[in-house]
Amino acid sequence: MTRYETLYDSPLGDMLLVANGDALTGVYFSHQKYFPHEGDTRRDGADLAVLHDAKRQLDEYFHEGRRTFDLALAADGTPFQQRVWAELQRIPFGETRSYGDLAHALGDLNKSRAVGAANGRNPIAIIVPCHRVIGADGTLTGYASGVERKLALLSLEGAALAPIMGAAVAATRRTRLSAPANLAFDF
Fold this sequence. Notes:
The chain is built from six helices and six strands, in the order ββββααβααβαα. By secondary structure, it is of the alpha/beta class. The chain has two domains: 3-64; 79-157, Winged helix-like DNA-binding domain superfamily/Winged helix DNA-binding domain (Arc Repressor Mutant, subunit A, Orthogonal Bundle). It is globular, with a radius of gyration of 16 Å. The active site is at residue 130.
């Protein structure tokens, strides 16, 4: 398979953007878990329309308050992973869900761990907002790109993070806090 790629300089560090020619197949922070396979044929995608659009929309997200993305996506995953990633895209900007919330939305509360595993394998960071998934107690849980980045993304979006005490109730609320427009990222 031929893969087109370009780098994007985000406020949270370098990102690798990957496409198949027509659709975005990956958005990866540098040094994150589950980077793309090395066996694919790699091509410079700096002039590819979908990668140019992805850079522009990511700039708007980080600097101008873009809330949704309008890009062709083609993530490679199992049917279950695809269902989880589709559910992630339903989480609105500035809101969070627990793994249990996602499992419930998918029709099986017993699949929270499987949802967590699929969430962690999401190849399209930010655009498929796996950073919006938190623990049932309202705490930040793992993030393939680092919990610091997850916190920065949720802060950028103004997501309300529940305190540990009373979080079981708070984690199901859909509240927002306002974040300063000039939020600085210092990693």
